[in-house]
Automatic annotation (TrEMBL):
It is a multi-pass membrane protein. This is Succinate dehydrogenase hydrophobic membrane anchor subunit. Keywords: Cell inner membrane, Cell membrane, Electron transport, Heme, Iron, Membrane, Metal-binding, Transmembrane, Transmembrane helix, Transport, Tricarboxylic acid cycle. The chain crosses the membrane at residues 20-39, 59-79, 99-120. Heme binds at H71. The keyword Heme applies. One of its GO terms (molecular function) is electron transfer activity. Pathway: Carbohydrate metabolism; tricarboxylic acid cycle. GO terms for biological process: cytochrome complex assembly; tricarboxylic acid cycle. The lineage of its organism: Bacteria, Pseudomonadati, Pseudomonadota, Gammaproteobacteria, Pseudomonadales. A ubiquinone binds at Y83.
Length: 122
């Protein structure tokens, strides 16, 4: 039996909803960027910088980054709880699973902070 100790959301329904909402957000962001690239075939640094200098684009990018972090966390948590079990890797599975989840959580936090620094120029 896997407990919800390392899961940030309340239940499987919240995980499922977070995964779907973040997927829709990431798809919208990808489609917007794809449309922008199609509409600007000779895209240079100046146009790219102008796009990301708008506050709305920075907020949209920050939402997409947050969606990516949420999507990755739910997916990683699901994979580790499904495959890092005592039956699969032995009696140290709980400790291994915690270490893998902690490492992924720290990495996701670092990447989020780094993304905020890139987007907002801190």
């Amino acid at each position: 039996m896997v407990t919800n100790v390392t899961n940030f959301s309340r239940s499987g329904l919240y995980d499922w909803m977070a995964q779907r909402v973040s997927a829709v957000l990431l798809a919208a962001y990808f489609l917007f960027l794809l449309g922008f690239l199609v509409c600007h075939p000779n895209l240079g640094y100046a146009e790219w910088k102008a796009l990301f200098s708008h506050t709305a684009m920075r907020i949209f990018s920050l939402l997409a980054l947050g969606g990516l972090i949420v999507h990755a966390w739910v997916g990683m948590w699901t994979i580790t709880t499904d495959y890092l079990t005592p039956m699969a890797i032995g009696r140290w599975a709980t400790g291994v699973r915690f270490l893998v989840q902690a490492a992924c959580g720290v990495l996701q936090f670092v990447l989020f902070v780094w993304g905020v620094q890139i987007l907002w120029g801190f």
